[in-house]
Amino acid sequence: MYPGEFDYHRAESVEHALELLADLDDAELLSGGHSLLPTMKTGLADPDAVVDIGHIDAMTGIDHSGDTTTIGANTTYAEIADDDTLWDSVTVLAEAAGEIGDVQVRNAGTIGGNIAHADPASDLPAAALAADATLVAHGPDGEREIDVDDYFIAMYMTDLAEDELLTRVEVPHQGPEVGSAYVKKPSPSSGYALIGVAATLYTDGGTVASARVAANGAMDHGVRLTAVEDALEGMSVDDVGDAGEHAGDSLDTSMFMDDIQASAEFRAQLLEAYTERALERAADRVGVAATV
Amino acid sequence: MAEHDITLTVNGNEQELTVESRTLLVHALRDELGYTGPNVGCESSMCGACTVHVDGKAVKSCTMLAVQADGTDVTTVEGLDQDGEFHPIQEAFQEEHGLQCGYCTPGMMMTAVDFLDDHDDPGREEIREALEGNLCRCTGYQNIVNAVETASNKMGGSGAAAGGDD
Amino acid sequence: MSIETEDPSEIDPAEILGSAIERREDPALITGDAEYTDDIQIPRMTHMAVKRSQHAHARIEDVDTSEAEAMDGVVDVFTAEDIDVPGSLPVGWLLETLEQVDHPILAGEKVRYQGDGVAIVVAEDRYTAQDALDAIDVEYERLDAVTDPSDALNGGPEIHDDAADNVAFEWEIGNADETEEAFEEAAHTVDLEVENQLLIPNAMEPRAAVADYNPSDNQIDLAMTTQNPHVHRLLMAGVIDHPENKLSIRAPDVGGGFGSKIHHYADEALTAWAAKQVERPVKWVATRSETYQTDALGRGHETHGQVAMDEDGNITGLKVDTKANLGAYLSTFAPSIPTYLYGTLLSGQYEIPAIHCEVTGAFTNVPPVDAYRGAGRPEASYIVERLVKHAAEHMDMDPAEFRRQNFVPGDAFPYETPVAMVYDSGDYEKTLDRALEMLDYEEFRERQEAAREEGRYLGVGFSAYIEACGIAPSELVGQLGAQAGLWESSLVRFQPSGTVTAYLGTSGHGQGHDTTYSQILASELGLDIEDIDIVEGDTDEIPQGMGTYGSRSAAVGGSALVQSARKVVEKAKKIAAHQLEASEDDIEFEDGEFRVAGAPDRSMHIQDVAGAAYLAHDMPDDVEPGLEASSFYDPENFVFPFGMHAAIVEVDPDTGEIDFETYVAVDDVGNQINPKIVEGQIHGGVAQGVGQALYEGAEYDENGQLLTGSMQDYTVPKAMHVPEMETDSTVTESPHNPLGVKGVGEAGTIAAPQAIVNAVVDALEPFGVENIEMPLKEERVWRAIHENGGDA
After folding, report:
1. Pairing state of beta strands C282-285 and C46-52?
2. C-alpha atoms less than 13 angstroms from C-alpha of A8 in its C-beta half-sphere
3. Closest CA to A116 of A68, A168, A70
4. Domain with B66 in it: what CATH number?
5. How confident is the model at residue A290 (pLDDT cuts 50, 70, 90)?
6. Using the 8-state DSSP alphabet, how is residue C694 labeled?
7. What's this model's pTM, rounded to 2 decimal places?
8. Quick one: B93 and B120 in the same domain?
9. Is the distance from CB of C473 to CB of C637 less than 8 angstroms?
10. A215 touching B (Cβ < 8 Å)
11. Assembly ipTM
């Protein structure tokens, strides 16, 4: 099927995009187009106007200076997944970007589009949570930083306001004592996550000091698995897989996603199995620079 | 309805055309410019039959607005052969029977070319993963994987001999 | 074990039959030069779109098209009221008890599945046509829907006035009394309830049609996605009430079919009809959503199967009771699929003294169900091979040896089964032995044992399949209810310069017919392949034809080609004898050359004979000028390919995930014309079987709404879902045709599902798992393990 009629506007700068958003009725933002266009083609979205922010250079590219990596919202999944430095500094994010869709989707889809769309079955929400990301938005009142823990609210709902634009994502570098990973059970048809688990283990002399573990596909938005994180504290890195059994403990399992792809009960089972795998893979990476 | 004058450089030829806001790149290529190599096999961005290169990268031309692609270099399957010589991927698909009905083949080859540009000596599993976004209902993929291996060898990769599945 | 291809220009005609040459059709397909239906552009062309019911079962109260008609760019809008032709789709296979029901090309009173068409829009472009669909307002009174055949038969909502209790037909085959007796006397019996789920064919090219009407001579030219243009022409001529000789149907390049492009649907007829109404060319191209809602589905069986055995594990009887889902209407060949293409194959590769099968066809509110790759035979092979696995387990016998013990012995052919088939030839132990060797079977069983100790679950599954293809002869199929003959026709025509064109009534859509037929003809006539052109898929060019389906093209079409070629040689021989001033009896034909026996210098090449035949200056008496011949080949019997497929899998009991370790396929399809094409057919068939076993299934909710309505939700297997396949073959010639070929198009699809399911069940034997329904999604596997307590 084909998109309905709309007016296309190409934004030349962040300011221009914000002006267009303010002036146009019923406008949607378009970056890579891989969240918006499929919904427009099936009629689920039918905006009057589309603002293309994909050509704003200031929102593109990866910068590793200092102890934080800054990723422009227009950066494609492929650029993130192919960034060797990011694989060393924030493995979980690079790994999750490489798990999204297929080659062609990764060549076009962007981190900003993904995180703004907040599909609960996408791969980046959990990775952003585990990476302790900061999301930077621009709105009429200027720039605002949003802690990732405050960002994902519900299915397709985030802390972003309608007149705001997500411009970049900032992630702190993970040192040699940190290991992180993203593992996923994809839907065989769509490639979206039936369950995806992202884990970052902050260790000290072979023991887990703290952890950030999060899941996609389980609930209606990416969530931290706090019971797992608690269980991990003080655990030997050799045993972290054991914490997988707590995967569902901090979640209201009655609210798990339940559809023809997988029941809530089976997702809970997968969540445990994949949490175990994510933790073990993250542990393997402690002290070694990860490679693609 | 909003119309836009855009320029696409398709297989090296600069083309000017007028499209609606909503015109998908694949329809601009097929219906407006006559490049019928990229095919439409779905509307859910899953099948990959419409895959072309935009500025050298494989993308699904059904999931990009034509106006979004304004100013880009587009390569379709029609642009693969040079001076009457098949591209190694085309030779390999023919040698390995990497196709049957041929509908998925243009997209499949465009994805493979992009992949082989970045991967010298891919393993069979890696090739299968790389083709995740291209569905084929005829071949069972085995001869497609053979063809991509063979093409890799032709393109200078040091991969195992074609048909290394034995 | 991949077969290496050869460059055809380097092969002598005498060697070309059986050579794995590159495909002649590929240059167009790998350059974008191919022409699929949607590639066709005609000046002044309009675009048609179909307004479809969102409800699976509803009465139509009102259709308001006024807003759509007023839209810019809309040429015309039509509803059922506008259809001024018979407009009811025919059924091409009748059964004694069949309830024939009306199947209008646009629904006027009632819609019976989600996707049933209620109106069409013709507009200037495809985007506008779709916009206009949204502007059509249809008021419905919703009715209860039913999608499951058993529910439909047991008090489901009435779908057709004429079909009481939604029974489309009741059919049986075999001997009930003898079978009953076998069960009474049996030392052991086992039984299984299995489902063979509904599948969506998913040819990569959606169905499409482009019609061009010329009012001055009342001519319709229709290009469409078809596997059988002549059959479509015959049927459509009736549907739209247009003279058959003024309706030309052409199959451009067709992007796969798998059965889905055999049937006569409403949309292509509407395209032709609409072109006549608006007197402009009309193009219709299905979106993938439309193919999901309207392409004829495959399978859809609920089956109870029982096996009787003596105390040594010899099978003595087989009882099968099947409820077949036919969908909302009878599709073109629907009645034949769960009957004559199913019940007749229930003997499998086994000597079974008594078989009885009953089938009830049910109307439901899903799209019509018809032939999809394998068509009836996968369902038969599935129940037989699942039962055999189950029976071997019950007898505590090795599944391979259990099969061997029950095989039809190699010296028993031709072998007549209790379900009306006479198997032409076979050697079943040979494919079994080769498969066991490829699996390293004994070593595997040791590994399996050791792995279980470590909490890892490996399993092996076998599938000893048989298929029947090249369905024929026409007289027999006529007695069984076919409303058509199942011959094939060909015409072989030399041009004066010595090139040849062959016209065939089959219609390839990815099978490499151009290559295969060229190989046959090059071999028969002793010509270089470059001198041969093959034409298929055009009612204007090809005298008659029945099309491509049921793995029939090589066995029936190829034989028709041989027959015409031999007639040509026969005529050429007369001319050559005359030219060489020799007696016809003294002329020998070899490698394209006519030679006088004993005088090798006196010879004439067939290409020169062609020149002489058209020059016609010096012809023998009673021989007409020209060199061409046509044939209608009607086979004397079906052919019966067979083989053994086997899979080794590992199952993760925590997640239900299944990994392939090995997939082996040993097939016997008779002589092979191009082994690389044969291999490709096996690969592709197996992949579709893998799809059915592990991933695919059309799912509907209780209202008949399709839940798997896009490729996001219905898994068409991807490259990483399909295992590496090791293929090998044995050759047992069919005695029934001049090429000794059997057919290969459906073998893999028939064979694969039960090999995989048997392997998974074998892996989970320690958990007491006896059956899991397809598709074996991880969740089902995990539940099967845990419903039995989850303890190995």
Report:
1. parallel
2. 29
3. A168
4. 3.10.20.30
5. very low
6. I
7. 0.97
8. yes
9. yes
10. no
11. 0.97
Question: Which residue type is seen at B134?
Answer: N
User: Residue A292 pLDDT more than 70?
Assistant: no
Domain ranges of chain C: 421-468+638-792, 487-633
Secondary-structure percent of chain B, ordered helix, strand, coil, rounded to 5: 35, 20, 45
Distance, in Å, from the CA atom of A101 to the CA atom of B59, rounded to the nearest integer, reads 12
Residue C249: closest CA among C271, C279, C274: C271
C248 φ, ψ (degrees, to nearest 5): -105, 130
Q: Domain of residue B54: give its range.
A: 3-79
Instruction: Please write the tens of the pLDDT for every residue from A223-270.
Output: 999 999 999 999 999 999 999 999 999 999 899 999 999 999 999 999
Fold for the domain defined by C487-633: Aldehyde Oxidoreductase; domain 4 (3.30.365)
| Binary contact (A102, B132; C-beta < 8 A) | yes
- Distance separating alpha carbons of residues A125 and A196, to the nearest angstrom: 10
Indicate whether B74 pLDDT > 60. yes
The closest of C311, C387, C308 to C770, measured between CA atoms, is C387
User: Are residue B63 and residue B15 in the same domain, yes or no?
Assistant: yes
Residue contact C715–A188, C-beta within 8 A: yes
Residue A16, token pair as written in the block: 């221009």
- Nearest in space to C285 (alpha carbons), one of C335, C361, C333, C225: C225
Which chain C residues are within 8 Å of A269, Cβ to Cβ? 654-655, 782
For residues C587 and C608, the answer to whether their CB atoms sit within 8 Å is: no
Same domain, B145 and B98: yes
Last residue of a domain, one of B59, B79, B99: B79
Query: What domains sit in chain A, N to C, each tagged with a CATH number?
Result: 7-52 (3.30.43.10), 62-170 (3.30.465.10), 182-284 (3.30.390.50)
Distance from CA of C108 to the nearest CA of A (A): 25
Shortest Cα distance, chain B CAs vs residue A57, angstroms: 15
- Nearest-CA residue of chain B relative to A79? B57
Tell me, yes or no, whether B52 and B92 share the same domain.
no
How long, in residues, is chain A?
292
User: Do residues C335 and C481 touch, judged by C-beta distance below 8 A?
Assistant: yes
- What fold, for C421-468+638-792? Aldehyde Oxidoreductase; domain 4 (3.30.365)
Residue C207's nearest CA partner among C158, C256, C162 is C256
Name every chain C residue with its beta carbon within 8 A of the beta carbon of A1. 130, 287, 289
Quick one: tokens of C530? 């470059």
Tell whether B55 and B111 lie within a shared domain.
Answer: no
Q: Is residue B163 part of a domain?
A: no
How far is A262 from C780, CA to CA, in rounded Å? 10
